[in-house]
Amino acid sequence: LNKDGSVKIAGVRWAVGSQMKLQEDCYQALVAMSDAAREAGYNLYLKSAYRSWQTQNTMYKNRLKRNNGKDDGWVSKPGASDHQTGLGCDVIPRSWIKASGMNEKMAKEPECIWMAEHCQEFGFILRYPADKEEITEINYEPWHMRYVGIPAATYIMENGLCLEEFT
Asked: Which of the residues 109, 121, 141, 164 is marked catalytic?
């Protein structure tokens, strides 16, 4: 663990806070976005960050079990989740902290509207837009941010793309 609270694993700096980890660049951008949101009167909360393959596999299998073996587009297969990169994170409004689940209704919350309008300023994209479900094969998730850096995020968001279309 470095003096600044980060750790370097396999050449990548990771920020470690409480139980959640993100790659250092993503973490710094998330802090900046959270600070800017707070200045605008919104409170953002990090609900989920890095997930190991094992954790993602368990989540995926549990979802299948609850859904009679059907992949309903809410949990990515292990090996395909942004969370496994340390660059994907679920960021939610205060009013959803104690909610039992997350769904597209969250998009109407002022914090999520603010994130959708400003995330690219900090290098994030809305990873699973409502109009790109057929391409991403994941349901609309107004809380799921993916760090790609400011130039790429600006291009993606200004052109109404999803990450699959950008790459």
From this structure: 141
